Amino acid sequence: MSHSFEFIPQTRIAFGIDRSLMIGSDVKDISGENKVVLVTDPGVINVGLAEIVIKALEKEGIDTRVFSNVQSDPTAASIDEAAEIIRSFDAKCVIGLGGGSSMDVAKMAALVAGDRHPAMHYALMKNPFAPKIVKTIMLPTTSGTGAEVTSTVVFSTDEKRKVWGWAADMLPDLAILEPRFTTALPNFLTAATTLDALVHAIEAYAGKRSNLLIETLSLQAIRLIAQNLEIALRTPDDLEARGKLAFAATLAGMAIEHGGTGIAHCIGHALGTLGRIHHGRAVSIALKATYHWNVEAAIEIHAEIARALGVKEEGLTETELALAGCNEFNRLVEISGLTVSLKEDHLSETEIERFVEIMLSEENAPMRLNNCRLATKEELGMFAKEILTTSEVGVTK
C-alpha cells in the first residue's frame, strides 16, 4: 500500500431474477415523475425484452417513449436523436436497456439533453456537460461492458472515429442486474461480451492505477468468469451461471471505472475504428496478441491472475504460472468460438501503418499509457502485424 487512493461507488446496484419487474417503482422513486424514455436497440426489441420492461412500466402508470435507433459502436447522431426525444418529452428519467451501445447512448443523451449543444461538442471532453437533471437507470442485457456502473461512453464521429465522453454525472443512478435478460443472447455475443469483461478485469488489476480495492473487484470478476463462461455457452438458460457472469461484468466495470484499462483496449478501440470489429472480439484478439509480452514485465501480477483463472500452480515457478495464465486466456478465446483471423473482415498487412497511427491517437493514449508495460511504436507495429496476419480462427464463425 505504497500510494493513497479514493474509491467512491455512486451507482445503486439491484440484483435478482425478475428484479426488472419493479422498474416502474424505480422510475418514480428516482425521478419523482411518471415519464421515462427507454433507449434500446432493434435486437433487444426483437427478442421481446423491451416489451417486458414496457409492460412493467405501464403497470405502474409510467408514460414511456421508446428510442431504438442504436447500433453497435453508436454514433454521435444517434445520441443527439435520443437527446431530442428526452427534451421534447420533458422526461426526467432515461432507461438504458441493452448492451454497452444502448447504455452508452442513454447515459450520454441524458446529459446532452440538459443543454443545447450536440454530442460532438463534448467529444474527448473538450467542453463540460451542464449539471445532470435527467436520472438514469441501466438494465444490461449482456454480461460485458460494465457500462451500468461507469462514467464513460464510447461513440463514433461521422468519420467513423471512436471517441470518448466522460463525467462524474454520467454514472447511472441505478443498475439493475437481471440474469434472465442475458439468456436470449446468441453464443457469439455471450462469448464476446463476457471476454470483454474478463479483459476489463485483467487490465484493471494489472494497470498502473491499480490498488487493493481494484484488485479485489478484478480477481473476483476473473474467478466468476473462469468458472461460469463455459457453463453459459453450453447451457444458455442456466440462470445461476448467467447471474454470476452478470455480477462479474459489473465488478469488472467498477474496477475499470477506478483503474482504467490497458493496451488490449488501446488496440481493440483502434480495431473498431479501422475495421468496425465488434468490441468484445477486438479486445480479445488484442489481449491474445499482447498477453505474453505483458507477462514479461509483470510476472507476479500475472501469476495472481492465473490463479484466479483457475490454473493449478503445483510444481510451477512463478514465471511458469504467469505464462500458464496466458495459455488459459487463449483457451477461453478458442472455446468461445470467436474468430481471431481478420481475413474475412477485409483487413490485411497493408493496414499496419494506419493501425499503429490509430493506436497512437489522442483518444487511445490513456489506455496505452495505463498499461503495465509501455509499448514503443515499433512494438505496436509488431502487434499490428501479428493481429492482421494471423490465420487462426475460432471453433465457430
Automatic annotation (TrEMBL):
Residues 11-179 form the Alcohol dehydrogenase iron-type/glycerol dehydrogenase GldA domain. InterPro entries: ADH_Fe/GldA (IPR001670), ADH_Fe_C (IPR056798), ADH_Fe_CS (IPR018211), Alcohol_dehydrogenase_Fe (IPR039697). Keywords: NAD, Oxidoreductase. It comes from the Bacteria. Residues 190-380 form the Fe-containing alcohol dehydrogenase-like C-terminal domain. PANTHER family: ALCOHOL DEHYDROGENASE, ALCOHOL DEHYDROGENASE 4. Belongs to the iron-containing alcohol dehydrogenase family. This is Iron-containing alcohol dehydrogenase. It comes from Metabacillus herbersteinensis. The lineage of its organism: Bacteria, Bacillati, Bacillota, Bacilli, Bacillales.
